What does this fold into?
Amino acid sequence: MLIDAHAHLDKYGEELHAALEEIEKHQILTWAVSMDLPSYQRNLEIAERCEFILPTFGVHPRRAPDYADRLSELRPWIERSPALGEIGLDFHWVEDSSQYPAQKKVLEYFLAAAREQKKIVNLHTKGAEREILDLLERYDIQRAIVHWYSGPLDILRALLDYGAYFTVGVELLTSEEIRQIARAVPLGRMLTETDNPGGLKWLSGTPGMPRIIWEVAEEIAAVKQATTEAIAQAVEKTFHRLIKDDPWLANLRVRDS
It folds into this structure.
């Protein structure tokens, strides 16, 4: 079983059918994160078509200004979602610092809900790694996945000490910096992701398809000096440990045997 812990299935457009066929064929458990409410509603529809999809609600930091003054509207969707994401802060790609208070306000609303409802969070941290760590500690978030980490190694180590999990994705195929991060993250805290379809498109101009997750596993195997099969099994084991005894995920299609 392959694990794609961060993908944007609602962004596929005309290629969605082919993507779902690949997910089914290769049995790729795919966490479909959302950017905003319409994104989550679309992912819910897509999940009806494929049993290997976990759709979750989040508001991406780029969308935060649209929701900062209407947080109460989000509550029913947060309560419905079995985990929360994509949520977080972005102080790198979002250059307008006037948006940062809205990002923090929205993120804190989600983190408070995650603490109350004991849910996993799937986090965007670009340029705000220290702030994210501080907020995880403040809100006592017990299970956090850090998506596509590319920040300082000292903060990575601090996040590991806190108990965070990390996804490693398609940039591993081209970046020595990401390989260094992959070396630093123990397999027991590592998950695979694609950020499909946009992750690979950002790197190479070609939209990513689900099967690229196997190439990610192959590259992790090279970094960790292991076989690809051993990496896939280790990631699956890590994912099952992350969701173990989680009542919100009791009906997830793939469970540890």
Summary: The mean pLDDT is 96. The radius of gyration is 17 Å. The first strand starts at residue 2 and ends at 7. The domain at 2-249 is CATH 3.20.20.140 (TIM Barrel).
